[in-house]
Amino acid sequence: MAEHVADQQFEQILQHLQQARGFDFTAYKRASLIRRVAKRMYIVGVESFEAYLDYLQVHQEEFSALFNTILINVTSFFRDPEVWSTLAKDVLPALLAERGGDDIIRVWSAGCASGQEPYTAAMMLAEALGPEAARERVKIYATDIDDEALNEARLAAYDERQVADVPPALLDKYFERNGARYTFNRDLRRSVIFGRHDLLQDAPISRIDLLLCRNTLMYFNSDAQARILARFYFSLTPVGCVMLGRAEMLFSHAALFAPLNLKRRLFRAVPRRNHRERLFILPQTGRDFMANHNPSHNRLREAAFDSDIDPRIVLDPVGLLVAMNSPARERFGLSGHDVGRPFQDLEASSRPTELRGAAAEAIRERRTVTIKDVHLIRDGERRHFDVVISPLLDDDDTLLGARIAYHDVSAFRVLQLELQHSKQELETAYEELQSTNEELETTNEELQSTVEELETTNEELQSTNEELETMNEELQSTNEELQTMNDELRARGSDLNSSNAFLQSVFASMRSAVVVIDRDYKVLVWNHRAVDFWGVRSDEAQGTHFFGLDIGLPVGDLLGSIKTVLNDGTEQQELTVPAVNRRGKPIECRVTLAPLLGHEQRASGVILLMEERKD
């Protein structure tokens, strides 16, 4: 029962973060999130999730500290050098060979933290292409959700510890030293573009040749990982490669990625026959223009895009825009932001001809409505189209929506008929292939049981590995904090040693015997002159009760004056007492007593200056 209440309270913290700051952490692994939040709770001194939620609501500055704790920014230059070595020797040469000599090389570093990873990629490509060619041809998009880390990355300035892993030759070539800081090469820095990006909410960057996402996926649950990987697949070019972290595998995503070097976590996107097949993967990505749909829309999009290159617009049963192909977007000025809007509110519903009534009729009566001889300007020429609005039905005659198709019936009618004939032949071939696939399905089902058992084992191992890697990075982050504290303590110790040496030099140079005692009458300081005066070494005197010393000075005669100084705290005392020095010579010893002031000007001891009085 208590555990259930704690889960509810933790969920309230996540909801508050989403509502107040727009950060949605619900897709992150729960165990890791709880550990990171518990760390902040320990630091601020609260013991329950409910109390910490109250603390967050009162102390607005805590948001920043919490985000820095949750978003573990553990990174370095050339992290896992053997991975970068494999990339340089095997992957980059093949990738550059497949690209044209003047083509732009596009790289995406997702979860770039403080920027060491994208700058490492920039150096690798500069070495492969040459610095001048790299500045002209390379574009590196470095993204992260942590604004504070991005601000640090944009400065491109690092201390000596942070650049320790950069090979000396590359450090001299691509960094400029300014005091204790190393600044990345300005010309090559222009190739790196930093920006805030949420892998689950924001649209992916397109036409990427090399995608770096190391030790980022492991913080998300399996559903979120699948959505992100689908976005990555859509981002990559047909020859694009992905580099993941040591704990991240793609056993359950073999349909999207094939391993180039499994040990080094390098993968290549599985080629698709055409662009439309890549588009059908997008419903997994959560992109905005695909978000406003119900589950039946997947079937609807497949039916709508199974057509030729003429403009196509797809509506759902209530007249909302669901999808449109590329010619429709270009010809009618539609975009992804129009998905989910009522078709009757769009300009395409009334220009070049009125379609609102016909679309409503086709949906209501479940029959095809054709509007003939619609004029459109196409390729600078006046063309004639038949606009066909037809209902789309599922296998059980459930109405999915309607498709608006613009058929060119002018000079290309014959070509369209030939295309339709070819399409029918392809469908026949597809049916024959389907029959063959059904014969193979029996064999596949026998193998599926074994495959599923192996996948289950692999996913369990991967989950454990990701958890260990997460804890390792948390420990590394804590270790860096402790290292910083050790550096501060070392500096303070050095200052203290310098101060002690200074005081020892001062005491040693004084002609008077100097003795310092605390409020318990124990000797703190016994300088060299005191040794010469009374014949007692410093190591024998220090820590000893002053009134227990056997020296030629009648220390008991000083008790009253010492108590006065300790109680008064400001007034000095001076008196002369008969004494015998270490050589047995009777002397008149002049003793000056002054307070040793401590906290709040209160006397924490007494300073005694002793010298022989000579009239």
Notes on the structure:
- With 615 residues, the chain is of the alpha+beta class.
- The chain folds into five domains: 2-70, Chemotaxis Receptor Methyltransferase Cher, domain 1; 81-278, Rossmann fold, CATH 3.40.50; 292-406, PAS domain (Beta-Lactamase), CATH 3.30.450.20; 412-457, no CATH class; 507-612, Beta-Lactamase (2-Layer Sandwich).
- The protein contains 20 helices and 20 strands.
- It has helices at residues 2-21, 30-44, 49-58, 62-70, 81-98, 116-129, 131-137, 147-155, 168-174, 186-189, 222-235, 275-279, 288-291, 297-305, 326-332, 356-365, 413-509, 528-534, 538-541, 559-568, and strands at residues 105-110, 138-144, 157-159, 175-178, 181-184, 192-196, 208-213, 236-244, 257-261, 266-269, 312-315, 321-324, 369-378, 381-393, 399-408, 513-518, 523-526, 573-580, 586-597, 603-612.
- A seven-stranded mixed β-sheet has the order 6-2-1-7-8-10-9. A five-stranded antiparallel β-sheet has the order 12-11-15-14-13, with helices on both faces.
- Strand 16 (513-518) and strand 17 (523-526) form a beta hairpin.
- Helix 6 packs across helix 7 (131-137).
- It starts with a helix and ends with a strand.
- Residues 273-280 and 282-296 have low confidence and may be disordered.
List keywords for this structure.
615 residues; alpha+beta; Chemotaxis Receptor Methyltransferase Cher, domain 1; Beta-Lactamase; 7-stranded mixed β-sheet; 5-stranded antiparallel β-sheet; 20 strands; 46% helix
